[in-house]
Amino acid sequence: MVQEQVSYSAVLMGSPILLKLFVDDQALAAQVFRLIKHQENLLTVNRAQSEVMAVNHAAGQQAVSVCAPVFQLIKQAKAVSQLNGCFNFTIGPIVKRWKIGFQGNSVPPAAELQRLLTLTDPADVQLDEQAQTVFLRKAGMEIDLGAIAKGYIADVVRDFLRQQGVTRALINLGGNVQTLGAPDEAGQGWAIGLQQPFAGPDALIGVIHVSSKSVVTSGVYERYFELNGRRYHHILDPATGYPLDNELLSVTVICDHSIDGDIFTTLLYGMGVRQGLAYLGQNPQIEAIFVTKDRQVICSSRRQFSFQLLHQDYRLNAVTDSTA
Ligand code: AMP
Ligand code: MG
To answer: Could you tell which of 121, 234, 262, 271 is best to mutate to test the pocket of ligand 1, judged by most ligand atoms within 8 Å of the CB?
Structure first.
């Protein structure tokens, strides 16, 4: 007998959250949503108060102690930010200035961006492992975990569900999906839609099938505004302070841990298709699907997922192992 999936939903972190289980367990679903809320309360920078905002408020003044998991997450975000890729978690002052996806957005003058860029050196985040404190050396610095937090939280939810004995479940934190097991043993795994950019949440390019994997997408269509015929989206180039501009509209990463997926969507977005595929060829634990402005869907090798193209205006361009 095929067991029924039961879906639970909520709006948290400014996003629709979906939990799928195979038992009708309201209490468990409520625990999961409470857990997400708790994590949001620690990590958000979209409100005046959180552990991360306490660090930001004390920039240039003093070190602030944070709880162990937040310290570890900041430590990881700092390490990734020092890879010289496009991921930089000290980009907060620039994110706040653009306000992309929020009320009051505008294009900052170039000189202002130049000034704000001086506040975005990850080396200026001083971590004290012993005291579990974080100090932002310059006044005006702000850390922003927006490119990593949902992935981290999706893994926290997965670990919690496992502890509760759950073997099959899916959590979708507004584009960050983490799965446990598969819906049924004989099937293809969980079906996760690859969204068509700028066509609304229900318009799909295709469907990704996975089991016990995370699927994370970063797309320019998620948060943006338009002004004088130009589109300004929320993934910023830490070198210039402007939205990253290349051939891509979205990057989806398939891998074990959602935190890695969240980090790599940003890193691969910055690398672009050619460099990204070369990187993925050397790092088989991470896989990706690139969607380009000229409507190509480019998959790295498909060891950890299968993909079914649904939209006839897009071309599927799979890379074989030997060309990756
Ligand atoms: P994601 O949804 O994972 O693509 O992350 C996007 C969010 O991360 C943005 O809304 C910003 O809060 C933040 N962000 C933007 N650009 C960068 C960047 N280059 N490095 C790290 N975080 C960024
Ligand atoms: Mg991300």
So the answer is: 234
